[in-house]
Amino acid sequence: MTVSIVRLGAVLGLAGLLAACANSRPTIDSGTVSYGDAKAVEKLTNEFGSTDLQTIAETMARSLAQTAASYPTKPLVTIADVKNRTSEYIDTRSITDSIQTQLLKSGTMRFATDIADMQAQTDELARQNTSGLYKGRTIAKVGNMEGAKYRIEGAITSIVKRNSDVKDVWYKFTLKMTNIEAGTIEWIDEKEIRKTSLR
User: Fold this and answer.
1) Which of 19, 86, 94, 131 could form a disulfide with 158, with the two C-beta atoms 3.0–4.6 Å apart?
2) What are the 10-residue block averages of pLDDT along the chain, 199 residues in total?
3) Residue 70's domain spans which residues?
4) Is the separation of the CB atoms in 83 and 154 below 8 Å?
């Protein structure tokens, strides 16, 4: 009886130790780095920042998803990288990716391979069909890609004004969806952001 209790205690102790080890994550800490809220409003400078990117992506994706939801079937679209027409460096691919991600999550659209990734897509098809490394029935056949019915493209522009005391930056982001065959603009929207700082 006593031996059984001791064994039970040992097993429970070991289980508790293993559970504690599984739930704890080792950290490497210099004492100068901390995690913050990725959605927190960022106001370090009046240059284009994470809050601007999130605001634009969420606004455009919501507007476009509302339009796409009225279509009888999910539209198949391709998306081009946003054009940067400002005087500063902006990672426009990140804006494009965020909009595409939110639209896919909304379940209102399907995406064909975009212009930026088309070379990688055709390279993969060629590799499967010409390398001789794959079983015939598993090879992705050439000529079966679906053509997108719509193209999404956008641009970001800015106007910068400054005097001795104040710097004012106005951004405008425009996104539109075009019917590729008809050449008609099916949807367009824009988002404006103004940021002012003391110099």
Assistant:
1) 86
2) 58 61 67 77 80 92 93 94 94 93 94 87 91 89 92 95 91 96 96 89
3) 45-130+140-198
4) yes
CATH of the domain at 107: 3.40.50.10610
4's tokens: 């059984």
The SS3 of residue 21 is helix
Residue 24 lies in a domain: no
Listed residue (154, 190, 191, 193) closest to 170, CA to CA: 193
pLDDT at 82: 93
Rounded Cα distance between 57 and 45, Å, is: 20
Strand pairing of 150-162 and 166-179? Answer: antiparallel
CA 45 vs CA 2, 84, 101, 167: distances in Å: 69, 19, 27, 10
For residue 106, the tally of other CB atoms under 10 A from its CB is 15
